Amino acid sequence: MIDIVGTHVMLDLETLGTEPGCAVVSVGACVFSAHGIGPTFYDAAVMDDTLLGSTSPATLAFWLRQGDAARGALLKGRVKQADVLAAFSHWWRQVGGNYVWSHGEAFDIPVLEAAYRLHGMNAPWHYRAGRDTRTLMDVAGARMPAMDASDGVQHHALHDAVHQARHCLAALKTLRVPGWFVPDAPGAEIKADMSATTGDGEA
Q1: What is the domain count for the chain?
Q2: What local confidence, expressed as pLDDT, does residue 148 receive?
Q3: What mean pLDDT value characterizes the chain?
């Protein structure tokens, strides 16, 4: 059973690589529950010598193929990477985070944990807190649809996190998971205030 008591957070990252130890540039997250999308977090790191982690030529090429909005968000960071991580940890404690979700178990969570370790810091969640959207989607017989313009900017960490949370809620509603199915609560139609930010980055 998916616990309804704790606070569930959807996480998304934008990075310069695809493996733990790569450079994390932006962190986006939102709280979600049976009643919809809650508080959000977004911050982006400045790309200077305080940005720790490896880069991948393939990932740099990927960013060159993205639209101006996605690339622009990646380049707007004004704070040090360590400060982004510290701000996210503060936000996690502030919202009472218990569970961290990501789209697949092999990327966002282990990559952010590795980024914390590069700075001698610990990720704010318990090692058993990770949850995976792809498993949920498979069980629900659903899929994560591609984003469109009404969802925000694809490959913007906050917009991606909210999109993923919305469709997790729709899957939980389809499965009628006890405590997560609220008949009059929004499902896939949930929209979030994309301007809501925490930290010093820009949405």
Answers
A1: 1
A2: 65
A3: 85
